[in-house]
Amino acid sequence: MSVLIFVDVAEGHVKKASLEALSYGAKLAEQLGTVAEGVVLGSATEDLSALGKYGVKKIHHVNDQILDHFDAQSYTKAIAQVAEASGAKCLVFSNNVDGKAIAPRLSARLKAGLVTGAIALPETANGFVVKKTVFSGKAFSNVSINTDIKIIALNPNSYKIIVGEGKAEVVAFNATVDQPKTKIIATNKASGEVPLTEAEIVVSAGRGMKGPENWKIIEDLAHSLHAALACSRPVADAHWRPHNEHVGQTGTAIAPNLYIAIGISGAIQHLAGVNRSKVIVVINKDPEAPFFKAADYGIVGDAFEVVPKFTEAVKKMKGIT
Amino acid sequence: MKILVCISKTPDTTAKIAFTDNNSKFDNNGVQWIINPYDEWYSLVRAIELKEADTSTIIHLVTVGAADNDPIIRKALALGGEEAIRVNADSTDCYYIAAQIAAVAKQGGYDLVFTGKETIDYNGSSIGGMVAELLDLPYVSLATKFEWNGNTAKVAREIEGGEEICEVQLPVVVSCQKGVAEQRIPNMRGIMAARTRPLKVVEPAAADSLTSVKSFELPPPKAGVKLVDPENVDELVRLLHEEAKII
Q1: Minimal C-alpha gap between A88 and chain B (Å)
Q2: CA-CA to A66 of 20 to 30 Å: which in A127, A133, A177, B142?
Q3: pLDDT in tens, A89-141
Q4: Which pLDDT band, with edges at 50, 70 and 90, does A13 fall under?
């Protein structure tokens, strides 16, 4: 009986979303009166015992080179073996790209009920009910998991990372790992940029920018805030910006601490993907833009004048000149 | 080559989200239903493109739902596909639905099963992975590009801050999102042809439900926007720094 948290490692480093999952899993273990343990697949350059400060007592490390490359099927088989051997009653994933690929597979493999997109700890006083986002962030549902083993995939940026004291015991786990049926042939990553789903601040712009050549002022603002870039659907559809920047109902759903929307009117489909942001700032020259209704702060003004001033003001505040 | 495309019925993206029966059910009143955009725009259209490139390709559609899904599956057939299968069962449990699709997929012997990356109502993002596990097949999730050649496929999938390109052995299950294809509008010929294409209704296979929805709730309303003078952007930065404490 334990809570087992999947620790997602990319290029040897633990992803931020996994630190949230660890903090969540540790709290859940406390709530259930049991211990939290982690599972790491493949090589890790970080000292895994340091993960103890997020509340896990033990890390099961399946240090097999095959697992250095992500494959949903081989990852699932390895995690299932650890879950069975450690008697895990609850598995916790981040609902990030890798979590979305493997949590459902484990649900089917272990016949364990799954809730993806969880945003809070479950209610366990009477049953096991998890709150999750539905209708692309426009509502929540409370879902009961009715199986002995439970699986939760926690939405990124939904649970605060809790740092405490302690070291985890790192135990090598020998799992039977199959040769994967997928082979990674290339990775294209924009270097030095903040990934959208992990970003605490997101600067997003829409059709109001009039053309892709005008994005410099948006990029400058994003850099000054160490923010990720995003855009509205028409902008991605017109190929002004890459598809992976599209946020909204049919793009990426995000929940950063701060979302700054520039020249975006705020159609219901766009709001659906961003309305879980903690603070929303809207800059739009149209005072009737529906986005203002969903915003915390707003400026009615021309983006081409306001945004450069915004960047300067941020730099001044941060003492960068 | 044979492709199975999973189709789900969802409320229109502009539908008002409300609940009835003491917040235990989605309020269908006045709601327009559409094909889940990820299923339609990306997986179905990509399947049609693959068939256009090789006309010997066979496309089947599958949906799990009651008879009120028929207009949606007909609309999907108007875009493309030789036949559709509707598993006559209504469920909100991902595992139960995945078990139905896996049963259909097993019988049909498909080289490729396409799903959308998620449905825009329950946002489970789970069906593809579950179907793959039930069939013991590889799974590539959140695909942004899909090509195939012989018995392998080349798929790009989203990773944090970029994409990863992998080669995978067929058969495979792939969940699709933006980038895989571009939205198409059905034409009159397709709509007419869809009427004569077979829509088979099959009874569900025995499967357990692992979860159940207890209740829904709407987010609390926002307090209202605080407007800042465009001539005084410093004030916005001060508010974000001192009041909201987020920069």
Answers
A1: 17
A2: B142
A3: 999 999 999 999 999 999 999 999 999 999 999 999 999 999 999 998 889 99
A4: confident
- For strands A9-10 and A2-7, give the pairing: unpaired
Whole-angstrom CA distances from A7 to A13, A61, B148 are 10, 10, 32
Please state the rounded mean pLDDT for residues B134-141. 98
With 0-12 CB in 10 A as exposed, 13-18 as middle and 19+ as buried, what is A219? middle
Instruction: Please give the torsion angle defined by the CA atoms of residues A71, A72, A78 and A81, in that order, rounded to the nearest 10 degrees.
Output: -170
The chain-wide mean pLDDT, for chain B, equals: 96
Q: Is A164 exposed, middle or buried (0-12, 13-18, 19+ CB in 10 A)?
A: exposed
Report the CATH fold assignment for A2-172: Rossmann fold (3.40.50)
pLDDT at B142: 97
Give the residue from chain B lying closest to A259, CA to CA: B246
Residue A54 in this model has a pLDDT that exceeds 60: yes
- What is B2-218's CATH topology? Rossmann fold (3.40.50)
How far does the CA of residue A211 sit from the closest CA of chain B (Å)?
Answer: 21
Q: Say how far apart CA A267 and CA B13 lie, in whole Å.
A: 10
Q: Which of B14, B121, B247 sits opposite A201 (nearest CB)?
A: B247
pLDDT for A259: 98
Compute how many other C-beta atoms are within 10 angstroms of the C-beta atom of residue A308.
Answer: 15
Q: Which residues contact A295 (CB under 8 A, 6 or more apart)?
A: A261, A280, A281, A282, B222, B225
Tell me which residues of chain A, numbers 233 to 292, contact chain B at a CB-CB cutoff of 8 Å: 236, 243-244, 246, 249-251, 253, 257-258, 268-269, 272, 275, 278-279, 281-282, 292
Question: For chain A, which residues make up each domain, given as ranges?
Answer: 2-172, 196-318
CB within 8 Å: A272 and B13: yes
Strands A139-145 and A129-134: antiparallel
Q: Is B236 within 8 Å of A310 when comparing Cβ atoms? A: yes
Percent of chain B with pLDDT over 90: 91
Name every residue whose Cβ is closer than 8 Å to that of residue B53 and which is 6 or more positions away in sequence: none
pLDDT band at residue A194 under the 50/70/90 scheme: confident
Sign of CA dihedral A299, A304, A306, A310: positive
Spans of all domains in chain B: 2-218
Q: Which residues in A129-288 belong to E strands, given as ranges?
A: 129-134, 139-145, 150-154, 169-172, 182-189, 201-205, 228-231, 258-262, 279-284
Residues of chain A positioned with their CB less than 8 A from the CB of B234: 313, 316
d(CA B52, CA B179) in angstroms, rounded, equals 18
pLDDT surpasses 80 at B37:
yes
Measured between CA atoms, how close is B70 to chain A, in angstroms? Answer: 22
pLDDT band at A295 (very low <50, low <70, confident <90, very high): very high
Task: Kindly report the backbone phi and psi dihedral angles of residue B140, in degrees, each rounded to the nearest multiple of 5, phi listed first.
Answer: -115, 120
Whether A2-172 and A196-318 share one fold: the answer is: yes
- C-beta separation of A54 from A161 below 8 A: yes
ipTM: 0.95
Q: Where does A196-318 sit in CATH, by number? A: 3.40.50.1220
